Amino acid sequence: MPQQPGSVSAHARDCGLAVGYVADGGQVAYYAGPRPAVTWPHQVGVLPRQADCFQDRAVVAQLEQTVACGGTAVLCQVLAGMGGVGKTQLAAHHARQVWARGSVDLLVWVSATTREAVISAYAQTAAEVLGADPAAPERAARALLAWLEPKIGSTQRRWLIVLDDVVDPADLRGLWPPASPQGRTLVTTRRRDAALTSSDRQLVPVGLFTPDEAVAHLATALAVHGRLELPDQLAGLAADLGHLPLALSQAVAYLIDADFDCAAYRTLLADRAHTLTELLPDLSGLPDDQPTSVAAAWSLSIDRADQLPPAGLARPMLQLTSVLAPNGIPTPVLVNPSTLTYLAGHRTGTDGRACVEDVTAQHASRVLRTLHRLSLIDHAPRNVHRAVRIHQLVQRATRDTLTAKQHDQLARAAADAITDAWPDVERDTDLVQALRANADALTRSAEDALHGAPGAHPLLFVVGRSLGKSGQLSAAVNHFQYVVSTAQDHLGLDHPDTYTARKELAHWRGEAGDLVGAVAALEELLDQMLLTSGPNHPDILAVRQDLINRRGDAGDAAGAVTAFEELFEQTLRVLGPDHPYVLSARHNLAALRGEAGDVAGAVAAFEELLPDQERVLGPNHPETLRARGHLAHWRGEAGDVAGAVAAFEELLPDQERVLGLNHPLTRLTRASIGRSRGYAGDADGAAEEFEKLLDQMLPMLGPDHPDVLSARHNLVHWRGQAGDAAGAVMAFEELLGHMSRVLGPDHPDVLSARHNLAASRGEAGDVAGAVTAFEELLPDRERVLGPNHPLTLLSRQQFAAWRVTAGTAGSLAAYEELLNQMQQVLGLEHPFVITARQNLVGWQEEVASINAHLSTD
Predict the structure, then answer these.
(1) Each residue of 133-186: pLDDT tens digit?
(2) In angstroms, rounded to a whole number, what is the distance separating the alpha carbons of residues 671 and 674?
(3) Around 329, how many Cα atoms within 13 Å sit in the side-chain half-sphere?
(4) Residue 286's domain spans which residues?
(5) Of 766, 674, 681, whose CA–CA distance to 716 is shortest?
(6) Are residues 197 and 345 in the same domain?
(7) Are the beta carbons of 79 and 206 closer than 8 angstroms?
């Protein structure tokens, strides 16, 4: 009877001749003669030498697992991971363990870098075990697979086949060992293709050492050579090398050969002038029979990736990721027009010539998957904000292949890509934080390229402004101090970008509370700019505008209005009515009029400005929305509190839709709604509004954000106004310590909190305590803001008022004298003056009533 595919004749099996009929494209695999005498257990192939200091790790236990959680035998495990994580050592260690335990009869180690190598190893095994003809390797390989096939039942031998370093899953097509209860297959590969896994193949990701494993490995390996290092230095070195096993072992060899200690070696590693090749052993000094250095560990993978479709894009994409944040690169950075332009300009064909072809976002996404498949990056497209992660040594090795010119071009291209990805309106906090992290990483690796000719890259200014807008005022100041210093070094004192950096630094110093320093810096900058540019240059006009604003903030609101009116006429004449600088000047002038006491003038100016902003900028532009908020504010200051609340409530949905819930302007509007309700007499409603605002802000911004501190300040204030003055005193005392630590004791917001704490003490019945607190506050107000600043005068007015309440001799006369001074400085219609005058009139009427009563008696 003819044999069926998959069967073996009983006579042949009994005679030691296994004639296996395998239905496979019409080919028949068979064993050509009697089986040779084999000594069992039997090993084919040479296992790599075990590392001198093999580090035990969690994946070792996973390899020992023989039954999966579902109860099915784990017949094939695929160890997948980037080059250098120790996949081969893990596989060899496992093979030695099962061999030593007598758990297998046949152990086959295959260096599976090519299909031919796999077939050759199979053929050798078939020749040694089955007597197959090695001159026909394809047929012999099929014979081995047939012998292993459980359906044929040719063997009951227990076996383990290790396919080490599979480069291309296609090389194993038709060569996978069968799923058999008698055997197991172990594969190591850098690939993560779907073709490598199936129902009976389990993917085992192999990653880096944990920090503890890395330190243990370094300590053990150094101890072999009689070296003892401090634990913190070992931990630092492990982190410097990214906990990569291959790098750690080679670093130990370098330390011993060069006779360096960890601290000295880490200093060399931190010096970007040195390449990895210079800081690790040459080929002759590699430990544990390692075949390649860390610097070259990924070169073959990169070559392979560049050949896969879309061909020629893997290398330039890897180069872009090599200068960005290793722990998370957002998708928008890697698929935007700047990135596509770089990829197209650096794409090469398989013959090494430039390939002229448009590169699309789909191409960019596909090449990211290619790099992921070859374990050169980790690509998680669903995590948009941190879609790509790449090991820091892969980055460094990639950068090391570039010339200085290529590196600078790459750095500016990466800066273009981050800038392109930056949203015009920073609604998405997570995205912006990721973009800042990538900008920081790029700056650290390419400082000269971003600061040198032709000028400071715009990304440097985008990052600083973003920090300031997010409330990180100290960070913004520090950032622009750095930009100013590097711009002066690279571009010179008179370069326009140096001037711009100095202007930004002065601006954020003012926002951080250093009003005097901001004014001085702008005055100095303006004097220097006038030496190189005419008075009508737009940059000169912009600096003058900033300077006037800061002088107004510093207390000279009336002088600022006069100066701004003069500047506005000049700006209008030079730039025309619709220029953004002109619209900005009109906005600032309107606000300064209100600050100077001309509330009605502020309302009228904003009412005139808004239609022009909507026409030129559009109704949804942030500056248009900001002007709507200011108009509502000054309407409230003019007495129309209900109208102000209605205007804010109408504005809020538009800001949430356009800017997002977490935008500073949106938060400002919600705060304004709360304050307006308080001013309208609803202190409980105001406190409730600020409580809701705090609940929203705290998870997103954290407890130290200036807007969070401001909201807490308002919440405490309005709770006090609602009747809990004693509670307000306790809350203000706690808040003050927090604000002083975060903002500094001289920050205007800290001084305002001290002012409100003093007032709360008086309202809680501690009149003497209020007088003392204001007396202590006044010298600091005068030192920081100046004696004629409106807030200084307000504190003086409160000090005088509580002295009147305390019955201090001469206090009423002193209050009247102070009112005269306030009227001269602030004007008769300033809100502070109006309130002080009303208080004085009330006290004078009260005194007159008392005197009249006494005379009647």
Answers:
(1) 999 999 999 999 999 988 755 678 999 999 999 999 999 999 999 998 889 999
(2) 5
(3) 30
(4) 211-296
(5) 674
(6) no
(7) yes
